[in-house]
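Sample intake — Fe2OG dioxygenase domain-containing protein
Collected from: Coleophoma crateriformis
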Amino acid sequence: MAGIPVVDLRLFASDPDRLSGELFDAASKWGFLILTGHGIPLEEIDEVFNLAQGFFAQPKEIKEEKWMNTAQVGYDHKESVIGTQEGCVFGDVAASNLTTSNLSSWWTHARREKIEAFRARCHVLSSQLLTAFATAMGLPPAYFFPAHDPAKRPGNVLRLMRYPALSTQPDANLPSLGEHTDWGTMTLLFTKTAGLEVKSPDAREFVPVPVVEGALIVNIGDGLALWSDGALKSTLHRVARKASLYDQDRYSMAYFVNANADAPLKFLKRGPEGKFTHDERKLDATFGDYQAARMRLFHEKFDSDVDGSGPVLDPKFVAIVKTLGVAHGHAITYGSTGVEQAGVAA
Ligand SMILES: O=C(O)CCC(=O)C(=O)O
Ligand SMILES: [Fe+2]
């Protein structure tokens, strides 16, 4: 079986239809692809990796000066049976990190400007990809834009991550990040270290994603899977703690592309010749409703903080997450007990 597809974005200029077709095929088969020729210079990617390294190397007191708030700005650190990951996020609306008071003092204005420039690069790229997906689906090129207004919340979120080195070899069965799908529209992922694994199209195994220098990884989130009625796949993935790498830090950066909270959950259906048209199914919910239920369910079990005192979620939205059927993974398995454990009102 051929591996995870590699798509060269330089085709966009010379043969946009072919490029859109290649993206669509990769995203409908694997839900993941490796993107080369994307136009973000390697030096700029490295610069942001260096900032991540510099920040995560700071003492705990500096990093913990500002914990992540509800506007998705600040630092967080999760430790659970399935791994440790620390992260730093810069807000969910354009330019918010230049003015926020919720970043550690380590983040000087000059450093924040570098982050903002990188976010702008990622934004341009994500818009280009959304255009290509819309084109491949027979929709107007700007079809996905109104639901992705950068001035509205939540916009796209850049998360710098470190999986700290361990001093002893871990149980090889414990991943550093448990299997999950991403709940946004799609994700651009940058990493220089192996470890990411994705579920194969036949769902029989997890396949390692090769690290290709200068390339980035694109994966479909629940959002595009919902829009496309499952034609584009939101694929399970995880970070495996490879025994040989347990004593090294692993860095990655994810740019989560999100539909705005107030965007209605709209469905498309696929007709003959692969064209997508509006589906009349009415769902009285927004992407915000979907994400709130999805995120909370995910984190609840992810953090192993299930003690019966979890948040009360609106059962209507939990039902929506369940019925839509794209959200899955160990961390969010809707088994007989999963939903109750997440503290859902009866
Ligand atoms: O660190 C990685 O390579 C993957 C991170 C990831 O899947 C996520 O943050 O959703
Ligand atoms: Fe992910």
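Post-analysis note: The CA atoms of residues 190 and 253 lie 5 Å apart.
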